[in-house]
Amino acid sequence: MSKSRVLIVSEDRLTQKSLYELICQHGYEAGITHSIKDVMAYLDEKICHVILADIACADDIAMLKLIKEKGYPSQIITMASHSDTEDNLSGVAVDCLIRPVEDKNIISSTERALSKVSGAEPRSSFLKKLLHKEDTFYDLVGQSPSFKEIYSLIERISSSRATILLRGESGTGKRMIARAIHKSDKKRRDKPFMEISCGALPREIIESELFGHTKGSFTGAINERKGRFELAHGGTVLLDDIDSFSLDLQVKLLRVLQHKEFERVGDHKTIKVGVRFIVSTNQDLEKAIADKKFREDLYYRLNVISITVPPLRNRKDDLPLLVNHFMNLYSKENHKKIKCVLDDTISTMMNYDWPGNIRELENIIERAVILDTDGVIGSDDLPELLVGNALLPFDTKINGNVVSAVSLKDALEEPERVYILQVMEEMGWNKKRAAKRLGVNRTTLYNKLKKYNLLAEAK
Amino acid sequence: MSREYKGIIDKISNPVDSTNRFINLALNTIGDNSQGRQFLLESKQGIKKTAALLKRLNDYSLKIEKEIVEMSKIDE
Q: What's the pTM value of the predicted model, to 2 decimals?
């Protein structure tokens, strides 16, 4: 079914442009003619479901009557400055709108008109959903049942001081959830939100970064410095990749979590802070405990309230919402005017497994927006990996060969290899940039390159 | 006189209506706490006042028109 087309008829350039934007924003296709005289020529060439006509004089009314008599399958809505045109248009127009017209009235009239036209699609279904503000929750995008459960949990825990453990694969949006928890907390939302990537900080400086230090406490400590915990006083601290903490630092962290107190490096004075801790990990902490890499007592301290963020493949209902969210974000950032995302594109994305989760989706949408030339995101704007190898069926083609009943692991390895190779080439074999684009850390990328024998090419 | 009023209303209504629509479109894309939003909301108030004046002018022109029609009926 094709997208519904609305023809805007107005001599006024501002009216044309503003109506065009409004109509497109609501998921319809729009066309423009400068006068009602041009409408018939337009209708002879293109199917148009609704005509939105700006009435200026009696001739316009006569012309609309003629269009109706000719039997074009379009419904007519008129806009005028005076209510006296209404009587003359009975039986011709579905709705006669009198200026000033509110946007919602234009859209509801269009929907009413479309309901009378057979073969017209009310509007792109996912864009329709997006008009409702409740589709976002403190900047989180998603309406799938699993995400709604998370929203409800956030609301219940927002005012508590309990430590929260966020678990989930890389790229699932754990940081965004941590931010949402911070924003939902009325007492803390105006205070700092301190995000600490524990895995990114070198082991030698992490203690000083977190707790601060006094002047002369170690070589290079030329000044007294407040740590991140102190700087976040009154707010929230997110400790990302908590599993990368060394065992000795885990002991110190346990004390901070339990008593909300610590000492700066090289100082004996105890500092008390009022911060809420949120910690996140993409690792199996229970396994880390078994491997003696993570302290059991810290685990129990952290695991007061645990939120498991589902991977994107388990919440594909949210994909259209996320696509639109990132499309708007990157259209603005890149000064691009993207009118719509084709249904086929969404279907292709629905059939993909998204191993890199939302981060991968975000990168793909950013790429599509940047590369797009026609204002429409189609399958041609997606990477080959998505179009060619979206969710391999039981009997499928890999590199042109029919492969029957491959295991899931094997089936996923080839597209992963192709995609890594493609991104590496795009990024000029720069591992740092490629890892960022792929949404994985450099070590993971290195391991994958090694696994797929791509290291020689990387060198 | 009534025709003159109608002509003026027609000429002003379109840009007023379009400007209001553009402000709404801009408000949909701008951050909740930005200063730009405040400026746009102020502009919207100005547009609302202009639209209200136009409505008054329109009602007045219709009233004159009605009176002229009634007077011509009496003349007949």
A: 0.50
- B21–A19 C-beta distance less than 8 A: yes
**Are residues A14 and B24, on separate chains, in Cβ contact within 8 Å?**
no
Written as tens digits, the pLDDT of chain A (459 aa) is 456 889 999 888 888 889 988 888 887 888 888 877 788 888 887 788 899 998 877 778 888 888 888 777 888 898 887 766 666 777 788 888 888 888 888 988 888 888 777 555 444 433 443 434 445 677 788 888 888 888 888 888 887 888 999 999 988 999 899 999 998 888 888 888 888 888 777 766 788 888 888 877 777 677 778 888 888 888 899 998 888 888 888 988 898 888 888 888 888 888 888 899 999 999 999 999 998 889 999 999 888 889 999 999 998 888 888 988 888 888 888 888 887 788 888 888 888 888 889 988 988 888 888 888 888 888 778 887 776 655 444 344 444 444 444 566 666 777 788 888 888 877 888 888 888 888 888 888 888 888 887 776 655
- What whole-number distance in Å separates Cα of residue A84 and Cα of residue A80? 9
- Cross-chain Cβ contact B17/A101 below 8 Å: yes
Tokens 């991968």: give the residue. Answer: A360
Chain-chain contact of A15 with B62 (C-beta, under 8 angstroms): no
Of B13, B24, B25, the CB nearest to A81: B13
Q: How far apart are CA A150 and CA A154, in angstroms?
A: 6
ipTM above 0.85, yes or no: no
The answer to whether A82 contacts B21, with C-beta atoms less than 8 Å apart, is no
The answer to whether the CB of A19 falls within 8 A of the CB of A8 is: yes
Rounded alpha-carbon distances, angstroms, from residue A236 to A206, A211, A239, A271, A304: 18, 15, 10, 17, 16
Of A14, A22, A82, the CB nearest to B15: A14
Spell out which residues of chain A touch residue B58, defining contact as CB-CB under 8 Å: 81-82
Q: Closest Cα partner for A342 from A388, A386, A303, A382?
A: A382
Contact B10 A103 (CB under 8 A): no
Burial A332-371 (b: 16+ CB within 10 A, else e): eeeeeebbbbbeebbebbeebbbbbbbbbbbbbbbbbbee
Of residues A12, A22, A332, nearest to B25 (C-beta):
A22
Question: CB pairs below 8 Å between A and B: how many?
Answer: 62
